[in-house]
Design a protein that fits this description.
The protein is mainly alpha-helical. Helices cover 76% and strands 0% of the residues. Helix 6 runs antiparallel to helix 9.
């Protein structure tokens, strides 16, 4: 009984500490939720508002801004251009990064510093500088591509390269690609078979994550599109034009709120798909391994 009495204050303090820790956790997540949700709720209300003057809520609600935005051919063209641009950027970067990262890890470690420097350049230089460099270079080598969609894709692929590289390289490191490649070669697999049947299945989470980061970076990029994409219309360029108008003519700010929500929806759906794709996955060390193999994909 004496021991129980002595332990009671300690147990009480431990229970109180757990309650305080739980309360702090709820407070933190509540604050984070408010930080992210309140601005989006304000944008949603503005996209539905007839007018929003001095009241805390709009004076009225309407769907006309959504109808006008969805029916606007220019906005449709901007979304089509941005989605095509972001998709091609992700595909090109994945096609370039996977062989480069694999080769630098397995075949020729001497080129690894070069690849890593190339991945660091877009972080070290402003996108405006990279865009002007591409304009100058293309003006000398291929002036017919200036202001075209092709040159803009090349520019976006250059600035999105680091996002794909670090995601894929990290997935290769986690999977132990060097050991897997040695095992595949010992079994008689060709380099192409090793890449297709061993490397790609084991780095699929990195591929999906890198592809999403590349897509998002390209979809929301403004400076590169402003300088290189003359004559092209992307969602960031359209949004910037609406912001620079300074006057809310024909509900331009309301339509801008609609476009902002549509952009958020596109990126949110992609993020949800990535989470769904990677659910319950860990690194697979051997394709087709048994349930007891460490790192088996469940």
């Amino acid at each position: 009984m004496a021991m129980n009495a002595a332990q009671a204050p300690t147990a009480a303090r431990s229970g109180s500490g757990r309650r305080m820790s739980r309360a702090a956790k709820y407070l933190f997540f509540g604050a984070a939720l408010a930080y992210f949700c309140v601005p989006m709720a304000a944008v949603l209300l503005y996209s539905l508002a007839t007018r929003w003057t001095a009241n805390i809520l709009p004076d009225g609600y309407t769907l006309q801004w959504w109808q006008a935005t969805v029916a606007d051919q220019r906005i449709q063209s901007a979304f089509s251009t941005s989605i095509s641009l972001a998709t091609l950027t992700a595909i090109i970067d994945i096609a370039v990064v996977v062989p480069a990262a694999y080769w630098s890890r397995v075949r020729n470690a001497g080129i690894r510093p070069v690849v890593e420097v190339a991945a660091a350049v877009p972080f070290a230089l402003p996108y405006v500088v990279i865009a002007f460099g591409l304009m100058q270079f293309s003006g000398v080598v291929a002036p017919q591509y200036q202001g075209t969609f092709v040159l803009l894709v090349a520019g976006h692929a250059a600035i999105a390269f680091p996002f794909v590289y670090w995601a894929v390289d990290g997935a290769m490191a986690a999977a132990g690609i060097e050991r897997l490649s040695e095992t595949a070669e010992a079994c008689g697999a060709s380099p192409f078979q090793t890449l297709r049947r061993v490397v790609l299945p084991n780095i699929s989470p990195g591929l999906v994550t890198g592809g999403l980061l590349s897509f998002a970076a390209s979809f929301g990029e403004f400076a590169m599109a402003q300088i290189i994409g003359r004559g092209l219309d992307t969602v960031p360029l359209w949004s910037a034009e609406m912001i620079r108008s300074y006057t809310d003519t024909a509900g331009s700010y309301n339509r801008l709120a609609v476009v902002t929500l549509l952009t958020f929806a596109v990126l949110f759906v992609l993020s949800a798909l990535v989470v769904y794709w990677n659910r319950g996955q860990t690194v697979r060390l051997l394709p087709g391994g048994g349930a007891n193999t460490e790192g088996v994909r469940r």
